[in-house]
Amino acid sequence: MGIVVLTMKASVIEMFLVLLATGIHSNKDMTKKIKRPKFTVPQINCDVKAGKIINPEFVVKCPAGCQDPKYHVYGTDIYASYSSVCGAAIHSGVLDNSGGKILVRKVAGQSGYKGSYSNGVQSLSLPRWRESFIVSEGKPQKGVTYPSALTYSSAKSPAAKTGEATKAYQKPPVPGTTAQPVTLMQVTGATATEATTTSLPKPSPSAGSTTSSLRPQPMGHRSWELDLWSTSSYASGHHSPRANPGEMDLWQPGSVLLDAGFVPKEELSTQSLEPVSQGDPNCKVDLSFLIDGSSSIGKRRFRIQKQFLADVAQALDIGPGGPLMGVVQYGDNPAAQFNLRTHMNSRDLKTAIEKITQRGGLSNAGRAISYVTKNFFSKANGNRGAAPNVAVVIVDGWPTDKVEEASRFARESGINIFFITVEGATESEKQYVTEPNFSNKAVCRTNGFYSLNVQSWFSLHKTVQPLLKRICDTDRLACSKTCWNSADIGFVIDGSSSVGTGNFRTVLQFVANISKEFEISETDTRIGAVQYTYEQRLEFGFEDHSTKADILNAIKRVGYWSGGTSTGAAINYALEQLFKKSKPNKRKLMILITDGRSYDDVRIPAMVAHHKGVITYAIGVAWAAQDELEVIATHPANHHSFFVDEFDNLHKFVPKVIQNICTEFNSQPRN
């Protein structure tokens, strides 16, 4: 019996152990399932920019085909958040054009990004940007949880904007709760004033190591302290020398009005009852401000820029009889906020300025200058013709595109370009500047009159009076388009045998006397000359000489040819060899001098010249046929044709020819 009992007990114990083991294995399996959740890698398109994604660190999958140059990348190794994420991954060598998974980490903004060609992708250079990112292979790190779904910023702009990027996920604080650590990429949209009184928690060690593992931030690095808080050391470990927090108390927007002797607010109510001013007649200019609305300028600096415009509007006596002012804001592309005729007094202008909102994007000042030249200074937009055109470009640091060609075209259109460069590039930052010496390449003249360099945005208000003093000094606005600086003048000179050597020298003196009345340069009036007999010869073209002294010397060197008189063929030759190379924004003037009737027909060549917009003056001497002169001359013929009885009297007609040229110019629209 005893043996049987023991056997039964052993069986029971064995069954218990089996059940216990089964339960343990079952628990282990459940534990494994809990510890290993399935991670889904989010997919993005090739055009998604890092700045649009709020998450500070994430793994994503890129599709194939992101090597296309339309997906812009800015920087090398460390990329501006304005870059295509997948394009940067290919440029860095982490991916090829077939796509794949990558790990992206947000880091602090840099003071400049150097472009380079790598792995089939040409990255571009860019000035400082508020945020950067680096790319590595898409292998999740142990102990780090990555989001299966990405959080995107507001879609108002192609780039994530400070403040706007946080409104989509920002929650109001709950009393009694503990503040969560905030990294540089997850800052709430507090104002500068609120931020200075808020105690910010320290970043986690992992967040700190992300920044410190990179190279130290260059001196002059612009962090977000102007827009969000004043302690840039939180983001980069040191205070930015460009934005000393102490400066924030030195000047408050609007204080310049009282400093400059303006009327206090309490007195404005009595002034509003006075008649509306017609404007200051001593400062009659058509003025356009091109303001920087790029993302890198930030909200705080953009507000300072708007206050500067308001100060200008207050200081100027805006009105139809004085200065008129419009504003164009530029980022990726320019847009007119309002034109010259929109607001006819300073009060309305200031109200409109306050309503301007920042566009974001890059800092394409060159594109903005082209826009202003082609669109802004038109009669439809309020351009008055009799007032000088002035464009003031404000740029934060440096433009992201080139300004030279656009500015040359603007100058040739008679626009006086001023450049205000705020916090320009330091020596260490100059390597990132797209176009070195851009300001001198843009302004009307390089004598310092048209350029103002401001060390800090907090000092911009001090520029109001110096700028307005220059703008209102209309006698010094050298680029204003006038009768003297806006033409391509082509002389067509009869060198036939009937003229003779002595008289030919008299004709050349007549040509020189007219030429020296004009302002001659490559951007002002240009002079060319053709001599003809039966044949034609180009003596010099519009692009051959760019100073008055060179032109006068070239005229002296013209040699007498001798031969027949084929005036019709000479007009055709001048159209092809001279005026075909005339600039589109120049007035084309042909001054033809002959002493006899042409051997060929002049009617068709003259009609072609008129059809092509060439204003033709015909000057006949001695035996010239007056009916031919009237056919050659632009209508009305009595204003464009002259007859001189002998060569020695040619000089008497110089003032009359000049007067008619300028009278005609002043009667035409300015641009």
Helix content: 25-40%
Structure classification: alpha/beta
Unreliable stretches (pLDDT < 50, length at least 5) are 1-9, 30-34, 155-274
Gyration radius, rounded: 36 Å
Name of the top-level CATH class of one domain: Alpha Beta
What general outline do the C-alpha atoms trace?
elongated
Mean pLDDT: 79
State the major sheet: 6 strands, mixed
Would you tell me which CATH topology of one domain applies?
Rossmann fold
CATH architecture of one domain: 3-Layer(aba) Sandwich
Which sequence of strands runs across the widest sheet? 12-11-10-13-14-15
Subunit structure: Binds dermatan sulfate and chondroitin sulfate.
GO cellular component, one term: interstitial matrix
Protein name: Vitrin
GO biological process, one term: positive regulation of cell-substrate adhesion
Features:
single chain; alpha/beta; Rossmann fold; 6-stranded mixed sheet; Vitrin
